[in-house]
Amino acid sequence: MLQLKIKEVLFKECQDFVNKRSKTVEDIISSNQKALQSETKSSAGDKHETGRAMLQLEMEKAGQQLAGINQMKLILAQINISKKTEIAHLGSIVETDFANYFLSISTGKIMVEDKIYFAISLSSPIGKLLLGKKRNEEFTFNGKTFQIKNII
Fold it and tell me: Where are the domains of the chain?
């Protein structure tokens, strides 16, 4: 598969990951809003208030998750998969003697044509190490030295 095609597949997987998470969180928010609206005050007032407080906490948690998802969307919007450079940057595939990384957002392991890639954030420990590196450079992570074989 062409290098650009691999980048396209990795980028699409990251977009799908974000869209699925966004849908899940939006469904949670919608469900909780309906539950809050349908809560009616009963003779068990304390129980009612506790239920509302729990729903409110869930809404806040979902709101924070949604903010994180929106941040991921902003990062993905900055990626130009057709940009070629010798230096690892946002949107690069970095192949090392240990693993292959797609510098984007943290989604984890992605399989493309029987080859494993790890989509990682630039703010992750290994993402910080890879950023700005060039082919044949070495870096140390967790006490192990890795060599960069290729940057796509």
Answer: 3-77, 93-151
